[in-house]
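Hi R.,

Here's the chain you asked about this morning:
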Amino acid sequence: MTTSTPTSRRLFLVRHGETDWNVVGRLQGRRDVPLNALGRIQAGRVGRVLPQLAGDPKALAYLSSPLSRAVETMRILRTSLDLPASEFPTDPRLAEISFGQWEGQTWPELRRRDQLNVRKRDLDPWNFTPPGGENYGDLCERVSAACAELEDDAVIVTHGGVIRALLHVKAGMPASEAAVLPVRQGAVYVVTPGGFKVAD
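And the predicted structure, written out as tokens:
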């Protein structure tokens, strides 16, 4: 691999493909929910887009969240790049933001069951901590530490919350914008020192 300096390193951030919980709007967080059929198709598409964005796939580092929806996405995209499917590390610091006691529920359910806390989150989604969960400040600390150890341009397969945190930390997106940014599945968020772009 060719080593790049921290100032020039590029991150290719990929949200895992779709799951059945995504379809119904259920908060996944740390729950280990597998990809559905569309999610696997999305993962293959990302693999075909990456060489156009990054150049030689063999010159990149690859790192994944340990949750199965991210690991399967990485395996599929690596297969589409003609790389060994399972030869990549996982890092627990790249797991999704924890929603604590809210995991497994939908927003309409939460608005009925925990109206006060949902209202607090609506007012300040970046700093709010769900019961038993974590906030975006906590998330930024752990994902920043994981990325600081990278020595090469890297493909990171992770989750919507993690991508929001990295767009704030690495691309300067204001926290208020990052907290509510819709993060697409089947797309690549290319983060460089000058900002970011989205490709699919």
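The chain has eight helices and five strands.

Let me know if you need anything else.
M.
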